[in-house]
Specification:
Number of strands: 3
Radius of gyration: 20 Å
Strand content: 5-15%
Strand order of the largest sheet: 1-2-3
Structural class: mainly alpha
Largest sheet: 3 strands, antiparallel
Number of domains: 1
Oligomer: single chain
Order of helices and strands: HHEEEHHHHH
Number of helices: 7
Shape: elongated
Distance between the termini: 17 Å
Helix content: over 70%
Length: about 180
């Protein structure tokens, strides 16, 4: 009985953390990842172009690149957080490693994405809008899914996010008998 109680407590704790971290508007993810995104992009651009940084705007020649919340992709970090926290039976240390791995990998890919889109915009390419929309609608999702699949393989994750918790709770409920 104590094992069931601990499992239910674990589930409640993980999902409460997920709910609390989402409000208001994923602020914690933007608070952490906005500077971690803006400064490396500015640094990379400054290697190739004379740039200046004013808040969340990077000026290169006469082109302003404003890195808004959508560029930082707080919702993508939250989705990775959901995937990592909604898998049961993972020890805390391993879970922390998984979350850090997914966040660092996504941060790296996101910085490269913004850098490449910035280069395309500087070249005054007619391709910018098409490439930007392609990244916005499809490639970013593929990045998150790809990172999750890589995590499943590297960390040998056997359970299915959310579903495994629901299955466990159902098996212990009066409905399953």
């Amino acid at each position: 009985m104590k094992e069931i109680s601990n499992s239910v407590s674990d589930i409640l704790t993980r999902y409460i953390i997920l709910l609390v971290s989402a409000f208001p508007d994923f602020w914690i993810f933007y608070f952490i990842f906005t500077p971690l995104t803006i400064y490396p992009v500015y640094f990379l651009l400054n290697l190739f172009y004379e740039s200046s940084l004013i808040g969340n705007i990077i000026l290169v020649n006469e082109t302003a690149i404003e890195l808004i919340g959508a560029c930082v992709a707080g919702a993508a970090y939250y989705l990775l957080f959901i995937l990592n926290l909604s898998v049961p039976k993972i020890k805390l240390q391993k879970r922390i490693k998984m979350i850090l791995f997914s966040f660092v990998l996504f941060l790296f890919v996101n910085i490269l994405r913004i850098f490449l889109l910035s280069i395309i915009s500087f070249l005054d390419s007619s391709w910018f809008d098409a490439v930007h929309k392609l990244f916005w609608y499809f490639v970013s999702t593929i990045f998150v899914v790809g990172i999750w699949f890589l995590e499943v393989k590297l960390f040998k994750i056997k359970d299915i996010p959310i579903y495994s918790d629901i299955k466990f709770l159902y098996s212990k409920s009066k409905f399953s008998k």
